[in-house]
Amino acid sequence: METANSSNILSSTFYLTGIPGYEQFHHWISIPFCLLYLLGIVGNSTILHIVWTDPRLHEPMYYFLAMLSITDMGMSLPTMISLFRVLWSISREIQFNTCVVQMFFIHTFSFTESSVLLAMALDRYVAICHPLQYATILTPTLITKIGIAALLRSALPVIPLLARLAFFPFCHSHTLSHSYCLHQDVIRLACADTKFNVIYGLVLITLLWGMDSLGIFVSYVFILHSVLKISSQEGRFKALNTCASHICAVLILYVPMIGLSIVHRFAKHSSPLIHIFMAHIYLLVPPVLNPVIYSVKTKQIRQGVLCLLFPLKISSSVM
Fold first, then answer.
1. Which of 78, 89, 74 lies closest to 18 in space, CA to CA?
2. Which of helix, strand or coil describes residue 21?
3. Domain named G-protein coupled receptors family 1 profile: which ranges (predicted)?
4. Which helix H or strand E contains 107, and what residues bound it?
5. In Å, how far are 28, 157, 163, 166, 274 from 160, measured between CA atoms?
6. What is the pTM of this model?
7. Where residue 184 falls among pLDDT bands split at 50, 70, 90?
8. Which value, in Å, is the radius of gyration of the alpha carbons in the chain?
């Protein structure tokens, strides 16, 4: 009986939601979403190409930046197909197993992005507080291990959370609140005791994001302490300026994330538009803005972008 129930759940179909009340404008609404996804893909692909092809950028800071670009795309791209299927009126249906895979990628890469930002904070700490040991501490081998550990640390704890969904009966409405699947949205439809999933999910968020944000905060305490020891004001400004892009990236991830969590926990009966708006900001803003911020604030990345756009002019000016 339990096996039959499980196989029945695996074949369940959920129905995604676009922008409630604006269904007749979905085709027009898809245009800004197309532009945002295009900007995110082009921007992050450009960062990856520049770091990969320019030997001068084969340094820890830029390796971590490449990791950030990968996690940005990993977090946003799984939502793209289902979003446009809804907005272009192709289909609102999504199968249970597809939904689980989508949730796995969204939640795994959102946790991974937080871990990468922690690694980038540690990179800035070593660069500013221990500049002479920078190359010997952050070796390519260690950076590779950090990247693998960040991915495993984010992916493995998510598996038990999603595996339990296969044993939940979904006897309520199968209509989800978003144009993609989120764990907190799916368990809302389950007709079973979801206490474990709720508590486990809350503990997971608290441990992973809490530890990462604490690590970032402590890193910047040490960085600030070290910067204040620099005698010249120009030296202080230069040291802090190397952290500006990272601070912006942290705010871009954590502010929408906290806002989305608050809306899901304490504003359940608010307008659906607020939930949808916050969810799209959380998944789309970091991939779009991070490449822009690092291109503007980081000289080497900016030069790489200019070389791609105007190769003849840049090469002649260098000569």
1. 89
2. coil
3. 43-294
4. helix 96-129
5. 39, 6, 5, 11, 30
6. 0.88
7. confident
8. 22
Among 16-30, 111-125, 140-154, which is the least confidently predicted range?
Answer: 16-30
Torsion sign over Cα 193, 196, 197, 198:
positive
Asked if 48 and 69 count as a contact pair (C-beta separation under 8 A), the reply is yes
Residue 180 to residue 107: CA distance in whole angstroms: 12
Residue with tokens 């390796």: 63
In the chain, what are the domains? 14-309 (1.20.1070.10)
Q: Percent helix, strand and coil across the chain, each rounded to 5?
A: 80, 0, 20
Instruction: Reply yes or no on whether the pLDDT at 2 is more than 80.
Output: no
Higher pLDDT, 5 or 203: 203
Structure tokens at 188: 């809302």
Degrees, nearest 5: CA angle 171-176-182: 110
Give the CA distances from residue 304 to residues 10, 43, 295, 296, 300, in Å, rounded to whole numbers and listed in that order.
47, 12, 9, 11, 6
* pLDDT greater at residue 102 or residue 232: 102
Q: What is the per-residue pLDDT across 63-110, written as a single tens digit (0 to 9) for each? A: 999 999 999 999 888 888 899 999 998 888 999 999 999 999 999 999
DSSP β-ladder status, 93-95 and 13-15: antiparallel
Nearest to 254 by CA among 224, 223, 219, 217: 217
Q: Which residue in the block uniquely carries the two structure tokens 């939601």?
A: 17
List Cβ neighbours of 19 (8 Å cut-off, separation of 6 or more): 25, 26, 29, 273, 276
